Automatic annotation (TrEMBL):
<keyword id="KW-0408">Iron</keyword>
<dbReference type="Pfam" id="PF02589">
    <property type="entry name" value="LUD_dom"/>
</dbReference>
<feature type="domain" description="LUD">
    <location>
        <begin position="68"/>
        <end position="230"/>
    </location>
</feature>
<protein>
    <submittedName>
        <fullName>Predicted L-lactate dehydrogenase iron-sulfur cluster-binding subunit YkgF</fullName>
    </submittedName>
</protein>
<dbReference type="InterPro" id="IPR003741">
    <property type="entry name" value="LUD_dom"/>
</dbReference>
<dbReference type="GO" id="GO:0006089">
    <property type="term" value="P:lactate metabolic process"/>
</dbReference>
<dbReference type="InterPro" id="IPR037171">
    <property type="entry name" value="NagB/RpiA_transferase-like"/>
</dbReference>
<keyword id="KW-0411">Iron-sulfur</keyword>
<dbReference type="InterPro" id="IPR024185">
    <property type="entry name" value="FTHF_cligase-like_sf"/>
</dbReference>
<dbReference type="InterPro" id="IPR004452">
    <property type="entry name" value="LutB/LldF"/>
</dbReference>
<dbReference type="GO" id="GO:0051539">
    <property type="term" value="F:4 iron, 4 sulfur cluster binding"/>
</dbReference>
<keyword id="KW-0479">Metal-binding</keyword>
<keyword id="KW-0004">4Fe-4S</keyword>
Amino acid sequence: MSQTPEQFHQLAKNALGDKQLRANFRGAMDYLRDKRKTAFSDANEEKQIRDLAESIRQRCLSKLPELLEQLEFNCYKNGIQVHWTENPEQANAIIAAIANEHDAKQIIKGKSMVSEEIEMNHEMAKLGIECLESDMGEYIVQLDGDKPSHIIMPAIHKNKQEVSDTFEQHLDGFKPTTDVDSLIQTGRTRLRQKFFEADIGLSGVNFAVAETGTLCLVENEGNGRMSTTVQCAYRNNGH
């Protein structure tokens, strides 16, 4: 849903005045910084890797149309069907057609920011098709009827008590706890069953190799592999 500048400014003001929300973000960001320091003890090495990644990205963007056509050609050679769309309406129409082709009533999703941008979940719900998020953070905010607040940590704005409250409200048989491992295990157990019940799996793609027609997913939860291998049909809505 679009917002006017005035609405955005008011929402931002409200968020900045929310002490609990700010504490949640502060704790999460401190955790992320500590993890980064552990992974990259050498600041110069980290910068070199980031600079290399950025140079590769810029080089690809400079010849994107050519690379996309090459990717399409090689994907077809690998047995992958490619669809082109110009807007969210076309994208959702294609997804709906594929779902109807497979008589699908439930789609399970790996991480896909494009599906967020086109409001796929909302559009599929109009057609009686349930879309379930399988990324743990996305799953939490979906249960709560909330929106993701960070591209790689969708539930960064929620603390463990809020997650427990969400599970207690929406998951039958859940016993309230603020133990992080127990909360994660609860989510995993519920999602694992959903992977086997879903008719279609869908995911985004972190990067693609045009020369080989290869789609690459990076994950740390296992949901990327599960959402692309378990279901009878798998669809990728690339970034």
